[in-house]
Design a protein that fits this description.
alpha/beta; five-stranded parallel sheet; two-stranded antiparallel sheet; 5 helices; globular
Length: about 170
């Protein structure tokens, strides 16, 4: 038998979400919160483009990989492990940019996660929330042959975020 194969870490080669890079073009860097950062392609891109980044995720393993990669690249990214539905997941901090790229979090009766997301945006700041088109998940299916593994209505999506922004004069 030969030597064990070494797998290259996929996150080291990942590119940031294209929408993030496109939408932030020309925006002056400041403090950024990457919600649901995962292994950190977006957080790393932000830091490399002059943002002071806090990366948040519920996964300690993903954040450890992000922290290792940030250290390897000498990028000062702060990692915060928390659930957006916790009472104070971002320690009442506000950010010039709050980015939620394809992240998901469960709805709660008090909309705590949604409030936490919106409250993290500093006055005059930017919220960039991008999600999958879930229209197909709402199409009728034959339940005798198909099982849905994901209930889009159990999670806060961009429609709920947009509705909250339209109805809340404080945001």
């Amino acid at each position: 038998m030969g030597p064990p194969l070494r797998r290259r870490r996929a996150h080291l080669e990942r590119q940031p979400n294209g929408t993030l890079a496109t939408e932030l073009h020309g925006l002056t860097p400041g403090r950024a919160l990457d919600v649901g950062a995962g292994e950190g392609a977006d957080a790393i891109w932000l830091a490399e483009h002059g943002w002071e980044v806090t990366a948040n995720d519920i996964s300690g393993n993903a954040l450890a990989q992000l922290a290792n990669e940030a250290a390897r690249r000498h990028l000062p990214i702060q990692v915060v492990r928390s659930d957006i539905n916790e009472p104070s997941p971002f320690a009442a901090q506000t950010y010039d940019l709050v980015s939620l790229q394809y992240g998901s979090f469960t709805r709660t009766p008090d909309d705590r996660g949604l409030r936490n997301l919106l409250d993290a945006v500093a006055p005059g700041g930017t919220l960039l929330a991008v999600h999958h088109d879930l229209a197909a998940m709402r199409e009728p299916v034959d339940v005798t042959t198909t099982t849905r593994l994901y209930d889009p209505d159990a999670y806060v999506g961009v429609d709920a975020i947009a509705a909250a922004l339209r109805t809340d004069p404080q945001t």
